[in-house]
Known about the structure:
This protein is 68% helix and 9% strand. By secondary structure, it is mainly α. The chain has a domain at 2-90 and 135-155. α1 (5-31) packs antiparallel against α2 (35-61), α2 packs across α3 and α2 packs parallel to α5 (134-155).
Amino acid sequence: MESEKHIESLQKAVKSIKIADHMLYVTYPVVKDKRLLLKALENVSEALIDVINAILQYDYLFKRIQLYKNDARLNFETFLNKCAKRYNISDEETFQLTEILKLAESHKKSPLEFLRKERVVIMSDSLKTNIIEPEKLKKYLSLAKMIVEKARFGMNIK
């Protein structure tokens, strides 16, 4: 049903967060496989995309915003410009959220990734590097959790 899409998206976000949380706090410390960091990044990114979709769907349901069928960029701009403030998501949080999504995108497009000490280095075509480390991912995860909670509060979902 149309009115339940936002709840499904929120549930998917929570599931992705739980998976990333387990990877970072339980599996990674035992196994120490750096690929788990990349999988955790993917899950945090998916969670953020799902919570953004939930917020957009909820606001669209109540005719607060216009959505664009084939333009995710315009929908993301709508989220940043119109929805984020309504859900008490600060400019700093939206900046970090954007950085996480860019990092996940660079990981997908990256021709080269290598391991160095406790870090994963992602190299782009232009030889620009991004570094992923467990502590950074834990901060990203806590940001995702906080945004899900703000979305739940804004939608009045327990």
